[in-house]
Amino acid sequence: MSPTAGSAPGDLPPALEVDHVSAAYGPYRALFDVSFTVPAGGVTALLGSNGAGKSTVARVVSGLMGTTRGSVRMSGTEVTGMPAYKIARAGMAHVPEGRGIFANLSVEENLVLAFRQRLGRRRVSEALARTYDTFPILGERRRQRGGTLSGGQQRLLSLAKVLQAPPGVLVADELSLGLAPVVIEAVYDGLRSINRAGTALLIVEQQVDRALGLASSAIILEHGTVAFSGPSDTALAAMERILASRTAGSVR
Ligand SMILES: Nc1ncnc2c1ncn2[C@@H]1O[C@H](COP(=O)(O)OP(=O)(O)OP(=O)(O)O)[C@@H](O)[C@H]1O
Ligand SMILES: [Mg+2]
Predict the structure, then answer these.
(1) How far is CA 90 from CA 51, 77, 78, 161, in A?
(2) By alpha-carbon position, which residue is closest to atom 25 of ligand 1?
(3) Domain ranges for the chain
(4) Span 169-195, average pLDDT
(5) Which residue in 38, 76, 78, 193 has its CB near the most CB atoms, within 10 A?
(6) Ligand 1 in contact with 166 (CB < 6 A)?
């Protein structure tokens, strides 16, 4: 990684700018005035406890959910209120929490569909070979229907769809959930390599160490607001402070 990785070289706008964003599920307000950036080519970790609003941020930036206030820009372009497919076309990939795959298609059909769309027909077989090389379990299960894979295998499949055709920005929501340590290693190798090739990453994780190992900056959400924003090497201490102040207050 170059010494300037993580900071926008020259006058490149940030890959992602979330600017005073609030969002709600009907009457339930989930985000309050959230602001942060992912630098061009950079990696930002989005941390916080269960229910803090991490997945909501992921949904908002990828256009799956609207904002009630504020704006989202991708590489300097306003994308607030744009439908998800247009944001995807502009270079955003979102690996959602849970299972972002077609349950009725086989593993290979899922991959072929994604690779055809993103790489073109001629590069599909090469991309399949590389995927099975990185994640042998997907090769072994290539004819199995996506919906019958285990939870962890489904996470891998949804990431594999993205890794061979690196997007401008990847929003990865709890990628390592339910994966064995050796597989998590392969997942993070994949993330590192697409970041080296230029993809900016917003990584939502409960496995704080993993995310902070790759990220240069971190955001900690608490009850839908930004409780910390700063360099990743100071995030662990911030997290402990936040947890300590929470235990000192009312137990929730
Ligand atoms: N579809 C929904 N309808 C109503 N409330 C929702 C919906 N989805 C999420 N919420 C609420 O919004 C808040 C933020 O949820 P979100 O899924 O963003 O949290 P999270 O930080 O991703 O948590 P986790 O670590 O458990 O995945 C939670 O209180 C949750 O209950
Ligand atoms: Mg979540």
Answers:
(1) 29, 9, 11, 17
(2) 50
(3) 16-100+170-248
(4) 89
(5) 38
(6) no
Tell me the CA–centroid distance for residue 98 and ligand 2, in Å: 9
Q: Which residues have a Cβ under 8 Å from the Cβ of 58 and sit 6 or more positions away?
A: 46, 94, 96, 97, 171, 173, 202, 204
Does the C-beta of 51 come closer than 6 Å to ligand 1?
Answer: yes
- What global pTM score does this model have? 0.90
Mean per-residue pLDDT over the chain, rounded: 90
CA distance 248 to 9: 42
Tally of CA atoms within 13 A in the half-sphere of 50 that contains its CB: 1
Fold of 16-100+170-248: Rossmann fold (3.40.50)
b/e per residue, 179-202, with b = 16+ CB within 10 A? beeebbebbbebbeebbeeebbbb
46 CA → ligand 2 middle, Å: 10
Q: Which residue's CA lies nearest to atom 18 of ligand 1?
A: 53
Identify the weakest region by mean pLDDT among 22-26, 29-33, 146-150: 146-150
What is the 28 CA–ligand 1 centroid distance (Å)? 10
Torsion of CA 197, 62, 37, 69, to 10 degrees: 170
Per-residue tokens: 252: 């929730």
27 lines ligand 1 (CB under 6 A): no
Ligand nearest to the CA of 52: 1
Ligand 2 center to 119 CA (angstroms) = 29
